[in-house]
Design goal:
Leucine-rich repeat, LRR (right-handed beta-alpha superhelix); about 25% strand; binds 2-acetamido-2-deoxy-beta-D-glucopyranose
Length: about 425
């Protein structure tokens, strides 16, 4: 059989920050800092610079990185001459106190990070007007302070341009978290939790954030989800990340039934379920009219996934990730699905007897069945797979497998490699199969 072996080369891409530093030189005003002019922007990076005050930076600075220094107190007018500043990173300092006029002059600032400090949001720590001058701010990160709390709504009233807020979250037993004033942030699309402890997540929790599109509650500890509307009053709500979220009562049922009334497109619940043998009850049925396109429920403890428990796959779903579970059975009709990831499960036995597909046509383009203890496969497993482009069967126990690829006229990559061997990809020429 004619095939070409393609070696996969892993290219580790440098992040922007590192590459910038490579081209930079020590700043003349402080030799702990690196200065670089790039694409008409003047960057000053003083990461780990042992800096305790902010009185030294040139007024043409556009991006100022003061990550991991020893700044404890931001005095009035700390940045008053930096009107060109677009990004200010004060994360991982020892900030205890920010004075009322500390940010005066930063009317063009777009991005501010205060993450990893010791602010406590009391009058003595964070002046109520401190953020008021930041009229252009679009991204604010204020996560991982010693006390988990949310900026009071009086502190954020002037941030009319804010699009993304990353904050520690705490909610009381009424489910309330964000004060009324938050509803004036009409551009706020993205909410991401840092430290996060919520007693109850219910219709109150996000009611003052009606414009949210992306909600990331990963690693939150949630005692309980309330019945009724949780996200359904958010008109733009499209994306939810609950990865590693711990729900103490393991009651995701009311959350999932709330999906019925949303237009959610993408859900990530990676490492969210530790004790549940099935995906959340009626998950797919409750998503049927949402328009969902991508669902990641990988790295959980699921043993079986089939339509008796979850209902049928929503007819808008394109990507379903069930990898790294303990699945011994998967059985769906998958009329519209493009990508099915079943990597690292225990499907060997069931695939020796039949397939994962129930009735109906199939449009799958990518299937990953690697590491499933597969010894043998019946031809019917791949019946109708005429759109398949990538098939991963690596790390299985297949000794002599020649798939019936005649039906897979679009197949580009078939991975049959085994553990402890150099991983290679076997690339079949589509032309070759068309000719046979
Ligand atoms: C470094 O500077 C050189 C010359 O100015 C430029 O070609 C290159 O793209 C820069 N590299 C990075 C990573 O910015
Ligand atoms: C940091 O600065 C203090 C004084 O401001 C000095 O005593 C100390 O040696 C400096 N540490 C380093 C690593 O430069
Ligand atoms: C600010 O820091 C610089 C060096 O980091 C030091 O020389 C200067 O005395 C400090 N100024 C104040 C007001 O602490
Ligand atoms: C800002 O510039 C003014 C005028 O040049 C100067 O008096 C003032 O000390 C500067 N402020 C800071 C914090 O550097
Ligand atoms: C926000 O700040 C925290 C603490 O410094 C950091 O771990 C996190 O990566 C930041 N978020 C983003 C998106 O950079
Ligand atoms: C909050 O921070 C301020 C300034 O560091 C401090 O004086 C105050 O005791 C702190 N309050 C609490 C409740 O931690
Ligand atoms: C939340 O639900 C309760 C009871 O169902 C209702 O009384 C309350 O008005 C709702 N709150 C919001 C913000 O919709
Ligand atoms: C197939 O899956 C294995 C591990 O499960 C992975 O390492 C490999 O990169 C995958 N092959 C392709 C072509 O994606």
């Amino acid at each position: 059989m004619e095939y070409v072996i393609v070696f996969i080369i892993l290219i580790s891409t440098l992040n922007n920050c590192q590459s910038r530093l490579q081209n930079g030189t020590k700043c003349d005003f402080n030799n702990q800092c690196i200065c670089v002019m790039e694409q008409f922007l003047f960057y000053v990076d003083c990461t780990n610079g042992n800096i305790t005050n902010t009185s030294i930076f040139p007024s043409n600075t556009n991006v100022l990185i003061l990550q991991s220094n020893n700044i404890m107190h931001l005095l009035d007018r700390s940045f008053e001459n930096l009107s060109n500043l677009l990004e200010l990173d004060l994360s991982n300092n020892k900030l205890l106190k920010i004075d009322s006029e500390a940010f005066i002059g930063l009317s063009n600032l777009k991005e501010l990070s205060l993450g990893g400090n010791e602010l406590n949001f009391t009058v003595n720590s964070f002046h109520i007007n401190a953020l008021a001058p930041l009229k252009s701010l679009t991204i604010l990160n204020i996560t991982y302070q010693t006390i988990s709390d949310i900026l009071s709504d009086k502190m954020i009233l002037n941030l009319h341009a804010l699009q993304s807020l990353e904050t520690d979250i705490i909610s009381n037993t009424d489910g309330q978290a964000f004060g009324k004033g938050y509803s004036s942030l009409k551009q706020l699309r993205q909410l991401k939790a840092g430290k996060c402890q919520m007693e109850l997540v219910n219709n109150n929790t996000f009611s003052n954030l009606p414009y949210l599109e992306f909600v990331e509650l990963s690693k939150c500890r949630i005692v309980q989800f309330g019945n009724g509307c949780i996200f359904c009053h958010l008109k733009n709500f499209r994306y939810l990340d609950l990865s590693k979220t711990v729900c103490e009562n393991n009651n995701f049922r009311s959350l999932v039934s709330d999906f019925k009334r949303t237009k959610i497109r993408k859900i990530k619940m990676t490492r969210t379920f530790f004790t549940s043998a099935f995906p959340p009850f009626h998950l797919f049925g409750d998503l049927a009219n949402s328009g969902i396109t991508e669902l990641y429920i990988n790295k959980n403890s699921f043993v079986m996934a089939h339509d008796t428990v979850t209902d049928t796959i929503p007819n808008t779903l394109q990507v379903l990730d069930l990898s790294d579970n303990m699945l011994v059975q998967v059985s769906y009709s998958m009329l519209t699905l493009r990508t099915l990831n079943l990597r690292n499960n225990d499907l060997g036995k069931v695939l020796a007897k039949g397939g994962y597909k129930r009735y109906g046509t199939i449009k799958l383009q990518n299937v990953d069945l690697s590491n499933n203890g597969i010894h043998s496969l019946l031809f019917i497993v791949f019946e109708g797979h005429s759109y398949l482009e990538t098939l991963n069967l690596s790390d299985n126990a297949l000794s002599d497998f020649s798939p019936d690829v005649s039906v897979m006229i679009r197949l580009k990559v078939l991975d049959l490699s085994k553990k402890n061997k150099k991983i290679f990809t076997t690339q079949y020429h589509a032309k070759y199969f068309k000719n046979c």
